[in-house]
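Re: beginner question about structure tokens

> Can someone show what the tokenized structure looks like for a real chain? I only ever see the sequence side.

Sure, here's an example I had lying around. Input first:
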Amino acid sequence: MASTSDFKNGLCIKYNGGLWTIVEFLHVKPGKGPAFVRTKLKNLETGKVVDNTFPSGVKVDAVRIERRKYQFLYKDDSGYHFMNTDTYEQTFLQEALINAPQFLKDGDEVDIVFHAEEEKPLTCELKPSVVLEITYTEPGIKGDTATNTLKPATVETGATVKVPLFINTGDKIKINTVSGDYSERVNS
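And the corresponding structure tokens:
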């Protein structure tokens, strides 16, 4: 059991029949009335983020979760296959558990979050950004430097990303895996 004084970002709790992680929290002590804690909770199964207020001192069930490093091997009909980089044990996950499956390529390192008591995978998180090569995009025209104009580009994993006009086939770009947006061109 944990109380609101134990709240910290990343703490996983059982709440309303589901597993939630605390994204952010704020202890509030109003001039009138009892203190309370405002939180932003993210459901580990659905990814839904909700605002919630807990009275100060309330007890909640803390859940122990573990982050483990895995390497992406391949995808087939049964799902995405990963290998633990420490024990070489293999596991597979469904696409719904992965935060950005369209940017996964063979050999990528990911963090898989497990429910420690049940040994059940909860989520799979890629690094905040990945570097991928453009396999196809319309060529840019010399002198076409309009700002904030984007064109579609296909990367080596098959995903489509909007990129600036100066990006060409063969260029490597950094992509934000949370938003799926182009970040910058990477020099090889």
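Each token stands for a local structural state, so reading them left to right follows the chain. The CA atoms of residues 112 and 124 lie 4 Å apart.
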